[in-house]
């Protein structure tokens, strides 16, 4: 959901949650990160300019074998071509 603005999502009538890039990392990103030393909120920034949450969990019990309906309500005009669902397995 990193390509979307502000809104909400539902799968088969169940609310997945809100998507809203309220906490976008700002500042100078640094790939060479070291947490040692004095605390600073600007230390070890990553994904600068990106939304703080891109991934959302959909319980498998909410899904049907076929014909699942994903509804995305978008208020700010995001780009849906980058929205996808991925099946993850756990060990």
From TrEMBL:
Keywords assigned by UniProt, alphabetized: Glycosidase, Hydrolase
Record's keyword annotation contains Hydrolase: yes
InterPro entries: BetaGal_gal-bd, Galactose-bd-like_sf, Glycoside_Hdrlase_35
GO molecular function: hydrolase activity, hydrolyzing O-glycosyl compounds
Positions of the Beta-galactosidase galactose-binding domain: 1-68
Organism domain of life: Eukaryota
UniProt-listed SUPFAM superfamilies: Galactose-binding domain-like
Database matches in PANTHER family: BETA-GALACTOSIDASE RELATED (PTHR23421)
Protein name, entry field: Beta-galactosidase galactose-binding domain-containing protein
């Amino acid at each position: 959901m990193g390509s979307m603005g502000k809104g909400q999502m539902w799968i088969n009538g169940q609310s997945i949650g809100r998507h809203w890039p309220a906490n976008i990392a700002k500042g100078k990103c640094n790939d060479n990160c070291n947490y040692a030393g004095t605390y600073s909120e600007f230390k070890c920034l990553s994904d600068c300019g990106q939304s703080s949450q891109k991934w959302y969990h959909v319980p498998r019990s909410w899904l049907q074998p076929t014909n699942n309906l994903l509804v995305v309500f978008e208020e700010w005009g995001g780009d849906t071509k980058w929205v996808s669902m991925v099946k993850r397995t756990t060990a």
